[in-house]
Design brief:
5 helices; 5 strands; alpha/beta
Length: 169
């Protein structure tokens, strides 16, 4: 299984691709790619959203995931920020749907619990554990890319648990 994780943001949108290596003696996580879509604050919203769509679609074409995992919306005191984030999430989902890919969503607490073991972990803890779990020599170049990898890892862990329970095949 190859998972494309997306961490949406209004300035930086991270993506990460992780797969399960079944060739190893014990199945293990394998890092495929990670990156960050860096948006220019000076550009108008439609241009920024088009950039997110274009870059995520191109990355999905290159890395051919089986599924796309994305973080659920968290509630924010600032409605304007939440709306802007929702637009980016919508474009990310559209990019996946336009490629015919299933989209699954996970709550921030679930993602952190799955990767770090603690739902209120700091970004640095997530980045550290992603680096360890994927056996990377250096941490991902941005916290957004690390979060996207964490989202992909969360989906793999969830799918493995459901398979072990016989809930999915």
């Amino acid at each position: 299984m190859r998972v494309f994780g997306i961490d949406c943001g209004t300035e930086f949108t991270g993506y990460g691709v992780v797969e399960v290596d079944h060739e190893a003696r014990l199945p293990r996580l394998a890092h495929v790619a990670a990156g960050t879509v860096r948006l220019n604050k000076k550009h108008k919203t439609p241009m920024r959203l088009a950039q997110v769509f274009t870059e995520l679609t191109a990355a999905m074409e290159v890395h051919t995931p089986d599924v796309v995992a994305i973080e659920e919306v968290f509630f924010s005191a600032n409605a304007k920020s939440a709306l802007k984030l929702g637009q980016v999430r919508g474009v990310a989902m559209l990019a996946a749907a336009s490629m015919g890919l299933e989209v699954v969503e996970y709550a921030p607490l679930k993602i952190k619990s799955s990767v770090v073991g603690y739902g209120l972990a700091a970004k640095e803890q997530v980045q550290f554990m992603v680096t360890r779990l994927l056996e990377l020599e250096v941490a991902p170049d941005s916290a957004d890319a690390a979060d996207a990898l964490a989202i992909a890892i969360c989906h793999i862990h969830t799918a493995q648990t459901l398979m072990a329970q016989g809930a999915i095949r």
